[in-house]
Amino acid sequence: MSADVMSRSIIGTSVRRNDLLGKVTGDAKYVADMQMPGLLHGKTLRSNVAHARIKRIDTRRALALPGVKAVLTHLNVPRVLHAGSPHPRSASVTCDQYILDDKVRYWGESVAVVAATTEEIAEEALGLIEVEYEALPAVFTVEDALRPGAPLIHDRGPGGNLVLEPVVYTRGDVAKGFAEADLILEGEYEGGRPTPAYMEPNVCACQWDGNGNLTVWISTQTAFMVRGIMAEVLGLPLHKVRVLVDHMGGGFGAKQDLFQTEFLCALLARETCRPVRMEFSREETFLGGRSRHPAKVWLKQGFKKDGTLTARQARVVFNSGAYGSHGPGVTIVGTSALTSLYRCENIHLEGRCVYTNSPIAGAYRGYGVVQTYYALDIQMDEAAVALGIDPAELKLKNAVREGDIAPSNHPLIGHGLEDCVRRGQQEVGWAALRGRERTTTGALRRGWGIGCEMHGSSAYPGIKEQGNAIVKMNEDGTVVLLTGTAGLGTGAHTALAQIVAEELGVPFENVSVVHGDTDVVPWDIGAFASHTTFMGGRAAQMAATEVKKQLLVRAAGQLEVSADALQVRDGAISVVGTDRSITVRDAVCAKKGIPAAQFVGSATYYPTKSYSFAAHFVEVEVDTETGQIEVKQVVPVHEIGKVIHPVGAAGQIEGGIQQGIGHTLYEDYQIDLRTGRSLNANFVDYKMPLSMDMPPIHTVILETAPDPGGPFGAKGVGEDPIVAIGPAIANAIFDAIGVRFRHYPIKPEQVLQGLAAQQTSRSPA
Amino acid sequence: MSADVMSRSIIGTSVRRNDLLGKVTGDAKYVADMQMPGLLHGKTLRSNVAHARIKRIDTRRALALPGVKAVLTHLNVPRVLHAGSPHPRSASVTCDQYILDDKVRYWGESVAVVAATTEEIAEEALGLIEVEYEALPAVFTVEDALRPGAPLIHDRGPGGNLVLEPVVYTRGDVAKGFAEADLILEGEYEGGRPTPAYMEPNVCACQWDGNGNLTVWISTQTAFMVRGIMAEVLGLPLHKVRVLVDHMGGGFGAKQDLFQTEFLCALLARETCRPVRMEFSREETFLGGRSRHPAKVWLKQGFKKDGTLTARQARVVFNSGAYGSHGPGVTIVGTSALTSLYRCENIHLEGRCVYTNSPIAGAYRGYGVVQTYYALDIQMDEAAVALGIDPAELKLKNAVREGDIAPSNHPLIGHGLEDCVRRGQQEVGWAALRGRERTTTGALRRGWGIGCEMHGSSAYPGIKEQGNAIVKMNEDGTVVLLTGTAGLGTGAHTALAQIVAEELGVPFENVSVVHGDTDVVPWDIGAFASHTTFMGGRAAQMAATEVKKQLLVRAAGQLEVSADALQVRDGAISVVGTDRSITVRDAVCAKKGIPAAQFVGSATYYPTKSYSFAAHFVEVEVDTETGQIEVKQVVPVHEIGKVIHPVGAAGQIEGGIQQGIGHTLYEDYQIDLRTGRSLNANFVDYKMPLSMDMPPIHTVILETAPDPGGPFGAKGVGEDPIVAIGPAIANAIFDAIGVRFRHYPIKPEQVLQGLAAQQTSRSPA
Fold first, then answer.
1. Can you tell me whether residue B191 is helix, strand or coil?
2. What is the CATH number of domain A390-455+611-765?
3. Cβ-count burial B234-253 (b if 16+ within 10 Å, e if not)
């Protein structure tokens, strides 16, 4: 271990999170907690049809209700087309949404909004709005939407109900690859509609000041993108829109979007000259929120007898719902992910994204890759069975290695995936497990499965990203980091403060973080793509380096040595190899209260992409009488470069596994396929695993492939854990009961059906 | 006029102030307007004795009053010695104040504070606090305080009741100078106790969060200094104290201090775990605020027959009141000012500052110079009369010139003073006025007088100052300036935005200013010493230059030329001498919504000092029957380098003249010289000139001596106008009625007494 590494004291330590006390004491304020003088409450009337034109809308009775201050419909809001998702703003195909339209495209779409003095009055007023619809034929499945003559949901895009032109990735020659194969497997894999189900419902509050400046308080992952779209849609220059985000109760990708609400909230506030807050009910987080894209993945692969992959072909179709949102990005990232993970020279992939009259799908942790790797990693398991090879060994044989070209077109660093699988094998005693005698307890069957994944930190090359930071040192040596990164609740700002403290050689407690104010902090693209610590953290480190340079130059003058001879640690600047030192405070402050100079550093970091890896080893127990599946234990092994905050990283992993167990076994936001009506938009009918449902998780974090681009070598960990858990569970179920499931969620009734079918096929004809 | 000068479009234009609409509509929020959930109101019990020990203080009845949440006295607050004034924090002699002490040193000093749910309950609770004092002998005048055996007000400082060791300035040989003189004049001049009487009473609100961070909302000129002292006294690191200032209703120097209230407010908030606001009543702005230092200036000068000054000797004594506050600074600046204005080779000056049991004097526009130049400029007028020389010519003969050494030990730029006097002579037709026939209308007598001054922008060399700024460009080319400068209501942030807009070639409206948040903006020493536009403005310009450089490098790539070939104006970057150009927006934004790079500039400016000059020509009318003095017109001529905002500069000048008329003719905060009791702590008994009392003011602004250190050559104008008006009025009164007044305020009864004495002396014995 080098001296440099040895001297690190803050990086790699699970310091107390800087948002902890506020959250524990309830002192941390969320947008819903804000008390503002004169605040009005906005509520949304949502359509009870899936596809229709609004023939007539009458708001007079609502407006007459005492306490109602304004009602907006498509008749009195600006008709501006915009991208509901700020993310791929250059992809005009997703510029498909109006603030309010005279057409509704899914059951639950916003039709009108009311601002009133209380939530109750606003709610009552919604009931007084009369809407007459002219029904249009609706389609809910991608098959129906792609059928010739299907009703068109939008009159834009590449044609039909396609959100974008199909994406195609080709490598080598698949026909040749399949011709060389000893074994060809082919199957259709299907993903349901889980939702992120964040604790804090979507909320925003808007206020205009006397100078025509708009302030927006909002729970968002992408404050600057919100600013940009709000300014564009409302016709304001950027410096007249201030977006403020403090604490957030989760986002998981979905809080990148704008949900119509924000524009309407701003317009209600302008109309009434009062602050207005709009907060989603839990039901509305389903109706007006974003789910993961339901997907169908047709996947075909060829293998040599020894397990070598010879060809891979796939057709991926994502159901975008009524609007495009992140559809293009998800299609690109999800489909192109199939170029990697397991090496293959002959590849042909097609990805499609399709409008339907279903709830809007958007960005959600895993971003298309959950769906495609679910297919890929289950099919690898199928191949292992068919070839009679240990699935771990099959995956190791084909695992991407150092130097392989990633979907981002960059050579990978380190043998991350291999390291994860091998370490997992050790941890669970894989060899012994493979050879074990299966013990069964009554109807209970146990099995083990493996899921693998790799995931990039940053949205490069799809988006040319940049991380930015300003670091300033106070005159007592304490430090302020100004960052545009968002804190979704993951502890990102703790990690960034650690990085700055480490770089500047000051105690972690001496660094405070200013964030969530677009007027103040440097630009940031938002928190997504697992890039906050990687990209924002590196920018913070670079800005801190800048301040350190200034500090050492100053101290060099005071200590009468060259700045090169100095080091800073624990708040003291010392001459290396001597006992001569001064405190950081004395270097900063010339005279009591007056800094000797300004110690301010500003930095921009343009990342490419680094990849993190994981292998999840999962044990399940299936009750063959009830069909119940219980995950008994998970051993997730993650390679994420240098770990900044071990407990925080482990928390991300455990949380991702919990969500992954959810979408694999329980969660599916369902609609009536005749009417499009939402069936389970609440936490009673939409089942999620609770803490008591969680198995023991024995997390192992490897640091074998640090990325020189990340701060101190760190890479992202945000999305990885949700990807590998799904196929690991499906593979473990197969290991337990011999029934292969190629979809999620896998429900008890399907287990029973599967067992019954297995029984039938095994019985003599 | 150079091309560079010609191309300026924003500098020198009276753009609409960026705080205008908010202030006109009432939308601008001051600390007193803030509504905070759970807010408690703090009130202060003030002593009704001038000098005493507190023998007993009983708060039990107050605490028992329903609604009272906390009561603090010297018995339950930390005993920390601090400087009430943050300004000369290194001058330990003024570290003379406790948060609350067991001794009171003037009538009206804080003795206890109460926090309650309403202001009324807090007020009622004050009446329930029992205090038993042990009286100590008190002194109210500097003579009494300096008398041997006088009661000691503090047990610190250099001894006796001196606030600091006397300051001495010597040049040449005064004895020799007086020996060479044909005329020696000697007199004692005296200044009263005017107060700044800002519209917005002192106010602060404090709140602690769950992480132990303190937020302070306060009307202050020196947010970072407040942060520093609050942190020190409360034992917090700087990054745990956030000081917020938005709009201010004036400060005039006095809002540099801490008024005990701030610490007490923070302690009440900590004690009650609730936000607490403390707002001074109008009476308290007198009792607990800061006045100008009452002063006595003994001045002796020698002249040759032709008017040449041969020697100047002075003893200046400032009455600091019960605490030191800005006493040292005022003594140094006020006394050393007598080294300049009128050239003299032989000088000996002594300055003293003395504790008394009087209200606390502090910083107030003019900062000691009002008092000493009042003496100097009246004595120059006396000399002119005695020598039979036109006073304008006598002043011109001795006026400081380019290259003369200023009190800051820097050579002066330009013949600023001479320019002002000569221009004033032209404006008023001085030669004709001198030779005119005096017309009298009944008892009314008219006269003209001249007052001169020079005043430095920045506190250099007393304080090693620095201006700081961060400029960032949004992705649509709009701009944010982050500055620590304070906006007292003078339009400083408009001037700074103009400077940034000019430098970046974008419209003024495209620049917004973030200020008043110590967590966010770069460090600033505060708004005083007429340095905001000069120093803060220059830093803003430098930061903008930095951004411009980045922008031109980017545009050079796009336009495929060298950055040197580019200019930016009106939001467009063009190749000089061609019609090729791109918009700033296109240079900034690579892709819709994503900036091509970060355009952030940070700059620090270490100023020395620049001097502005003024000559005020004033006409007064004296009613010899009533003694009433009416200022009929003022022709202020100011040399302030490049003017950024003409209307703003003129506003400063007019406001200064109004305050100067006030202190010269009306304003005097008085105490009972037996008990120390305040006599006129309200706007009924403390008279100020109202708008209807104001004469026509024909302001002339010269730009003859721009300072290369200032932004575009600008210098300060904040303090200048209040200095010259006083002696101009006194000299005009002499011109009108032949009675010489050597003090302020000059009251009607004194005019009548003076006329009576004149009559007596003229009557044959």
1. strand
2. 3.30.365.10
3. bebbbbbbbbbbbbbbbbbb
Distance, in Å, from the CA atom of B103 to the CA atom of B108, rounded to the nearest integer, reads: 12
What confidence tier does B438 reach under pLDDT thresholds 50, 70, 90? confident
Residue B630, classed as helix, strand or coil, is strand
Coil/strand/helix, residue A68: strand
Quick check: B597 and B554 in contact, CB under 8 A? yes
- Residue B88: what pLDDT? 47
Closest chain A C-alpha to B395 CA, distance in angstroms: 39
Interface test with B, best of A239, A460, A512 (most B CBs within 10 A): A239
Tokens of B462: 């007393």
Alpha carbons B275 and B291: distance in angstroms, whole number: 30
CA–CA gap between residue A626 and residue B229 (Å, rounded):
69
This complex has an ipTM of 0.92
Residue B1 has pLDDT above 60, yes or no: no
> What distances in angstroms separate CA B33 from CA A116, A284, B37, B222, one per listed residue?
24, 36, 13, 21
Q: What is the DSSP letter of B405?
A: B
DSSP 8-state secondary structure symbol assigned to residue A342: B
In chain B, what is the straight-line distance between the N-terminal and C-terminal CA atoms, in Å? Answer: 66
pTM for this prediction: 0.94
Q: How far apart (Å, rounded) are the C-alpha atoms in residues A363 and A719?
A: 11
Closest CA to A585 of B217, B362, B237: B237
Per CB-CB distance under 8 Å, the chain A contacts of B209 are: 22, 27
B-chain residues near A463 (CB < 8 A) = 594
Percent of chain B with pLDDT over 70: 97
User: Which chain A residues are closer than 8 Å to B592 by Cβ?
Assistant: 89-90
Is cis: bond before A745, omega within 30 of 0? yes
Residues A690-709 have a mean pLDDT of 95
Average pLDDT score over chain B: 94
Q: From the candidates B512, B535, B538, B547, which should be mutated to test the interface with A, based on the most A CB atoms within 10 A? A: B512
CB contact under 8 A, B239 and A511: yes
pLDDT over threshold 80, residue A157: no
Q: What is the mean pLDDT of residues A375-396?
A: 98
**In chain A, ranges of CATH 3.30.365.10 domains:** 3-28+466-605, 390-455+611-765
Rounded-to-integer distance, Cα B294 and Cα B278, Å: 28
For chain B, how big is the Rg over CA atoms in Å?
27
Neighbours of B470 (CB within 10 A): 30
Which residue does chain A place closest to B478, by CA atoms? Answer: A239
B3-28+466-605: CATH class? alpha beta
Name the β-bridge partners of A444: A441, A623
What is the arithmetic mean of pLDDT over B269-289? 97
Q: Is the pLDDT of residue A301 over 70?
A: yes
pLDDT for B326 equals 92
Q: Which of A187, A231, A196, A480 is nearest to A362 (CA)?
A: A196
Residues of A in contact with B240 (CB under 8 A): 478, 512
User: What's the first-to-final CA gap in chain A, in angstroms?
Assistant: 66
Dump pLDDT digits (tens) for B471-505: 999 999 999 999 999 999 999 999 999 999 999 99
CA of B682 to nearest chain A CA: how many angstroms apart? Answer: 32
Q: What is the pLDDT of residues B294-351, one digit of tens each?
A: 999 999 999 999 999 999 999 999 999 999 999 999 999 999 999 999 999 999 999 9
Exposure string for A191-200, b = 16+ CB within 10 A, e = fewer: bbbbbbbbeb
List C-alpha distances in Å: A749 to A665, A718, B611, B765.
Answer: 11, 32, 88, 128
Residues of A in contact with B510 (CB under 8 A): 237, 239
pLDDT attached to residue A85: 66
* Local confidence band at B764 (pLDDT 50, 70, 90 cut-offs): low
Residue B524 has pLDDT above 90, yes or no: yes
